[in-house]
């Protein structure tokens, strides 16, 4: 057998990555520096916003506590409602809490304040306004779509008359037979 002659291979130490790095060193440093600068700027802005949000939350809590301890008056409630502009994410909570405080202190604007509540707390505010005498809220609308259906059934039964009352009471009993509100209204109606 004949052996093949080995041809000497000349090794060239060219590494493509090293070559790229050497040719584009300044560009790479600038891109990495810019990315770092953007990251630091975004982080700083987020921290400033978090501090501002925490300060607004603290102010809301402090004002709410002061009013709950008995120092609620028209001026303090107006200042509390003004906090809704500072933190719009808490607007519904602020108006609900202000409405509750107004209702507890027999202030006249409770129903108006509660009508400004929307979103997840809207049903709770509508229920409280209904209990305070706001009759523009129809309990039957919340029987099918509300989260507090037994309470709305209870209110609907109490607000209805005649055959409609009997029908609602029967429906209420079929859907929530173990509910205490059903037991109470059934006792009253029998």
Q: How many β-strand runs?
A: 0
Estimated structural class: mainly alpha
Tertiary shape: elongated
Counting structural domains, the number is: 2
SSE run: HHHHHHHHHH
Protein name: Tetratricopeptide repeat protein
Keywords: Membrane, Transmembrane, Transmembrane helix
Summarize the structure.
It comes from Geovibrio thiophilus. With 190 residues, the protein is mainly α. It has helices at 16-23, 25-71, 74-86, 91-104, 110-115, 122-131, 139-145, 149-159, 162-175, 180-189.
Task: Tell me what you see in this structure.
The chain contains ten helices and no strands. The protein has 190 residues and is an all-alpha fold. It folds into two domains: 113 residues, no CATH class; 51 residues, no CATH class. The radius of gyration is 34 Å and the shape is elongated. The mean pLDDT is 82.
Looking at this protein, list some descriptive labels.
single chain, 190 residues, mainly alpha, 2 domains, 10 helices, 74% helix, 0% strand
Secondary-structure map:
Layout: H1 16-23, H2 25-71, H3 74-86, H4 91-104, H5 110-115, H6 122-131, H7 139-145, H8 149-159, H9 162-175, H10 180-189
Helix pairs in contact: 2-3, 2-4, 3-4, 4-6, 7-8, 8-9
